[in-house]
């Protein structure tokens, strides 16, 4: 029996760092043909053409005229909607857009409305942490009712020191900075688990730098993780230390999300002293128990007063695919692509970071920044 033809993929835009991860995963798949890539920045495009065995196209319009099934869209955020619609209008069966997908929620809502013209199109957003082992565990614990009546929940997210200065997290004319671009991983997880909140109250702040002991200016802090622009190989600005308050957007954020039955509290910082995800915590409290977890390296446990929903009394620890304490980040990207391909190629309904969750997330982000600006609770409709 002959093998099915390979799934043909085009890569529109390459300015987000997740382009590299996904391109490598796609190259390693035996069922996939990468038709080519296009990137607006000619310097970056030439560099990629030298590094990757992928054909470069000089024009996005030339690329979408090729026969393809799926488009992966990885530009800077302002160009996500345009490229998504370009691919959809040229027959794409599937779109994977890098998050958050647009520079403002209104642009995302407009894109979603336009995509309704393609009812068979499968759309996924690049929230790879949606596929983390800890998320599977927490989703099941909450949805099966093992915790009893949930009363409150606390989540934490952010970026390592330096991450908020990355080029894709300090773009001009966007709604916000690290919270909008990357802290929203945590908000995506919250709306995935609990749905859309009734209302939101938030503080989104730039902080004031503390004076250094030497009186030579503000106290600076070492970069833990930062790609100012990983494509150039140089830092911009040329420093490995900088001060609180120097970012163009927020340093911290605190959010209360009100649901009919419980509250969720989330806090965020652009100044974590640890690497990516290591302190992205999840805590959910109910009348029968509590679950505590970290997204990556994955770690989760639930403690129940009484056995319920298949979980025993006392402590149950989540089994992990890799040894305890070892990152499984690449596994989450891979799982996302595997399930996305199943949805597009096989028509299988799977867990997904799809349109419904994306719209809910953008409604929450819109309300958060509005609440912080107007200093009040904002209802979500």
Textual characterization of the structure:
The protein has 381 residues and is of the alpha/beta class. It has two domains: 7-125, Rossmann fold, CATH 3.40.50.720; 130-328 and 355-379, Dihydrodipicolinate Reductase, domain 2, CATH 3.30.360. Helix content is 29%, strand content 24%. The protein is built from nine helices and 16 strands. It has helices at residues 18-27, 42-51, 60-64, 80-89, 105-115, 133-143, 178-194, 329-346, 355-374; strands spanning 7-12, 32-38, 70-73, 94-97, 122-125, 150-160, 199-205, 220-222, 241-243, 252-258, 263-272, 281-286, 289-294, 299-304, 314-317, 378-379. Strands 15-14-13-12-6-11-10-7-16 form a nine-stranded mixed sheet. A five-stranded parallel sheet has the order 2-1-3-4-5, with helices on both faces. It is globular and about 55 Å long. The mean pLDDT is 93. One of its GO terms (molecular function) is nucleotide binding. It comes from Exophiala spinifera. InterPro entries: Gfo/Idh/MocA-like_OxRdtase_N, Gfo/Idh/MocA_Oxidoreductases, GFO_IDH_MocA-like_dom, NAD(P)-bd_dom_sf. Residues 24-118 form the Gfo/Idh/MocA-like oxidoreductase N-terminal domain. Residues 138-291 form the GFO/IDH/MocA-like oxidoreductase domain.
């Amino acid at each position: 029996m002959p093998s099915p033809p390979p799934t043909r993929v085009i890569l529109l835009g390459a300015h987000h760092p997740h382009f590299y991860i996904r391109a490598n995963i796609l190259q390693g798949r035996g069922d996939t043909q990468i038709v080519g890539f296009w990137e607006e920045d000619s310097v970056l495009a030439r560099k990629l053409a030298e590094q990757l065995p992928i054909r470069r196209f000089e024009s996005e319009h030339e690329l979408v005229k090729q026969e393809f099934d799926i488009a992966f869209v990885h530009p800077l955020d302002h160009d996500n909607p345009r490229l998504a619609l370009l691919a959809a209008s040229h027959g794409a069966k599937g779109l994977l857009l890098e998050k958050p997908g647009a520079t403002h929620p209104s642009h995302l809502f407009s894109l979603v409305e336009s995509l309704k013209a393609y009812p068979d199109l499968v759309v996924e957003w690049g929230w790879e942490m949606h596929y983390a082992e800890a998320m599977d565990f927490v989703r099941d614990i909450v949805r099966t009712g093992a915790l009893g009546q949930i009363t409150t929940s606390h989540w934490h997210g952010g970026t390592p020191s330096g991450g908020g200065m990355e080029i894709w997290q300090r773009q001009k004319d966007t709604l916000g900075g690290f919270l909008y671009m990357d802290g929203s991983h945590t908000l995506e997880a919250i709306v995935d688990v609990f749905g859309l909140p009734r209302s939101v109250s938030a503080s989104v702040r730039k902080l004031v730098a503390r004076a250094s002991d030497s009186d030579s200016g503000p106290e600076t802090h070492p970069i833990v993780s930062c790609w100012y622009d990983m494509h150039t190989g140089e830092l911009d600005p040329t420093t490995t230390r900088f001060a609180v308050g120097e970012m163009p957007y927020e340093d911290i954020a605190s959010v209360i999300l009100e649901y009919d039955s419980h509250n969720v509290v989330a806090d965020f910082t652009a100044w974590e002293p640890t690497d990516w995800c290591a302190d992205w915590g999840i805590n959910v409290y109910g009348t029968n128990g509590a679950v505590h977890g970290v997204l990556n390296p994955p770690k989760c446990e639930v403690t129940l007063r009484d056995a319920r929903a298949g979980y025993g009394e006392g402590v149950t620890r989540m089994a992990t695919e890799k040894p305890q304490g070892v990152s499984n980040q690449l596994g989450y990207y891979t799982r996302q692509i595997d399930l996305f391909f199943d949805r597009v190629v096989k028509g299988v309904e799977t867990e997904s970071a799809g349109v419904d969750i994306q719209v809910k997330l953008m409604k929450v982000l819109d309300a958060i920044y509005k609440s912080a600006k107007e200093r009040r609770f904002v209802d979500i409709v």
